[in-house]
Write a structure and sequence with these properties.
Layout: H1 2-7, H2 12-21, E1 24-25, H3 26-32, H4 38-50, E2 54-57, E3 60-63, H5 65-88, H6 90-95
Antiparallel strand pairs: 1-3, 2-3
Length: 97
């Protein structure tokens, strides 16, 4: 339940997703996350770092081994969501965002 609580916090999954591509700096991460406030981003980074899912990497952040394993574990959900979006159609899926 603790993991679901952490991952259910606004922007947490998006941050993990963005970092799954490559390490990213704070400003770039903020831009990729639709310019979320810096205070929210700082809080989420701290929470995810405390959970050992991400770590500092030079001027940015990267996923840890645990963070990478989490992203891999969620890949079936990502595949399902793509199929769901196709079935829902663009207008319906966009309305749910």
């Amino acid at each position: 339940m603790a993991a679901l609580d952490l991952l259910g916090r606004r922007w947490a999954m998006r941050i993990l997703w963005e970092l799954s591509q490559a390490p990213v700096g704070f400003r770039e991460l903020q831009r990729r996350c639709e310019r979320m406030s810096s205070s929210v981003l700082s809080t989420r980074i701290e929470e995810l770092a405390d959970a050992r899912l991400l770590a500092p990497d030079g001027d940015g952040y990267r996923l840890t081994r645990l963070g990478q394993e989490l992203v891999e574990a969620l890949s079936p959900l990502a595949a399902w969501s793509r199929r769901w979006a196709e079935e829902m159609g663009p207008a319906t899926a966009e309305g749910l965002e």
